[in-house]
Design goal:
8 helices, single chain, elongated, mainly alpha
Length: 190
């Protein structure tokens, strides 16, 4: 194609869209490289390497759009009460992707994920005599648990037997309390 036969376009992006149409229609890169574009009075041709980059950029955008549609689907499933495991099984999506999407979903709903032991301790504290089940008391219990958890992390962070960090998310406070009476250590380090 000669420069006088150049296709008039308003921008490089518009020329890239035409290039993509030719690529998607199966035209080879050498033939596409012969097409001239008139971009605001300047004649522009794309070489095979540039065409390949335009195609790759488009594929990345399509992958991102697919992830956006995946995220929309998993958000709907979380909204319907599905667990992370259920979503992974039903969609076939990667566990790490679904887990991250779940964290984003919880954040968008102004919710947070807490360890199971934390939840169980909150239920236990809320069941003490004298605590009525009100929002204010629930908040008070959560504040007390947060304070206690932080105190454990601040004061007792390493096992006195093996020196490794204690993971309070995996150990219940009851087990930690039993072990902290004499020395703080893992339950199986004695």
């Amino acid at each position: 194609m000669s420069d006088t036969d150049a296709i008039k376009v308003d921008s490089i992006e518009q020329a890239e869209k035409i290039i993509l149409e030719h690529v998607n229609n199966g035209k080879n890169y050498r033939d596409i490289a012969q097409i001239a574009f008139d971009v605001n009075g300047t004649v522009k041709r794309f070489n095979p390497s540039q065409i390949s980059k335009i195609k790759a950029k488009n594929e990345e955008n399509q992958a991102q759009n697919a992830h956006d549609s995946d995220k929309s689907l998993v958000f709907k499933m979380f909204k319907a009460g599905k667990s992370i495991t259920d979503v992974v099984i039903e969609t076939g999506l990667n566990y790490e992707y679904v887990k991250k999407a779940h964290e984003e979903f919880l954040e968008s709903e102004d919710k947070v994920m807490v360890p199971k032991w934390f939840y169980e301790e909150a239920i236990g504290l809320a069941s003490y005599p004298g605590y009525s089940r009100t929002f204010e008391n629930a908040k008070k219990v959560m504040d007390e648990l947060m304070e206690a958890d932080q105190m454990l992390l601040d004061i007792f962070s390493n096992c006195t037997e093996c020196g490794q960090a204690l993971d309070y998310e995996k150990e219940s406070i009851i087990v930690a309390k039993k072990n902290l009476r004499v020395a703080w250590h893992h339950e199986d380090c004695s």
